[in-house]
Amino acid sequence: GQQLNQSPQSMFIQEGEDVSMNCTSSSIFNTWLWYKQDPGEGPVLLIALYKAGELTSNGRLTAQFGITRKDSFLNISASIPSDVGIYFCAGQRGGADGLTFGKGTHLIIQP
Amino acid sequence: DTAVSQTPKYLVTQMGNDKSIKCEQNLGHDTMYWYKQDSKKFLKIMFSYNNKELIINETVPNRFSPKSPDKAHLNLHINSLELGDSAVYFCASSQARTQQYFGPGTRLTVT
C-alpha cells in the first residue's frame, strides 16, 4: 500500500524553539490532516486541510496543504513541554476512504 | 462523554484463538474505520464501513472481519490469531468527508 514520506523521523529541540515537519506523496490527496499521538492514546486531530494552497492555524500550530496536493507541512511555534509526542500526517482521497498515514515524527523537547 | 470508545483496552490471548474487539461512537457519524498500528507506530487502514459500503484493504487477511450491528457500532472479529496480529488496533469514525475521530486503542498481544 502507499505510504506518505514524513520527515524528519525524530526531532530533539529546546523548549521555545520552532518546529517544522513535512509530508510528501507520489499521488494526489484531496484532504490532508495532522494528528498527534500521546503514549497509550489514540491519535488526536490537530488540523484538517481541504483545499490546495490552504494555510490553517490552530493556536501555535500552522499547517499548509501543498498547491500540487501532494504535500503538506506542519509548523509549531515556541514549543512547550506538552508538545512532546508523535505527530502524524495523513492523506485522504475522499468520501469514506481510510486515511493513509506517514510514519510519524517523534518530537522530544529538552527543557 | 467519550466520543469513540473501544473495549477491551488490553487483550492477551494465545495463537489460534478467536477474539473480538468492540467499538462504539456516540457522535452520530455515518462511517467507521479500523486501523492497525504496528510496533514501529505505523498506522494502516484495515476497513472503512458505512451503511452502504464496506471497503476492505486488500492486504488484510480474511481472518479479520468487521461486523456492524448498527450505525454506532463496528466490531472487529479475528479468527485463528497469529503472532503477527499483535498490535494496537484503533477504531475511528467520521461524518462523510470530515475529520476522523479515533478511539483510545486496543493493545492485542498474541502469545
Keywords:
heterodimer; A: 111 residues; mainly beta; five-stranded antiparallel β-sheet; 11 strands; 0% helix; globular; B: 111 residues; seven-stranded mixed β-sheet; four-stranded antiparallel β-sheet
What does this structure look like?
- The complex is a heterodimer of chains A (111) and B (111).
- Chain A is mainly β and 111 residues long.
- Chain A is built from no helices and 11 strands.
- In chain A, the strands form 2 sheets. In chain A, strands 2, 4, 5, 9, 10 and 11 form a 6-stranded mixed sheet that branches.
- By secondary structure, chain B is mostly beta strands.
- In chain B, strands 2, 4, 5, 6, 9, 10 and 11 form a 7-stranded mixed sheet that branches.
- At the A-B interface, strand 4, strand 5, strand 9 and strand 10 of A face strand 4, strand 5, strand 9 and strand 10 of B.
User: What structural class should be given to the helix and strand makeup of chain A?
Assistant: mainly beta
Q: Work out the number of β strands of chain B.
A: 11
Q: Quote the distance from N terminus to C terminus of chain A.
A: 39 Å
Low-confidence parts of chain B lasting 5 or more residues at pLDDT below 50? none
Radius of gyration of chain B: 13 Å
The helix/strand class of chain B is: mainly beta
Which series of helices and strands of chain A comes N to C? Answer: EEEEEEEEEEE
- Strand-residue proportion of chain A: over 45%
Order of helices and strands of chain B: EEEEEEEEEEE
The helix content of chain B is under 10%
Task: Summarize model confidence as the mean pLDDT of chain B.
Answer: 92
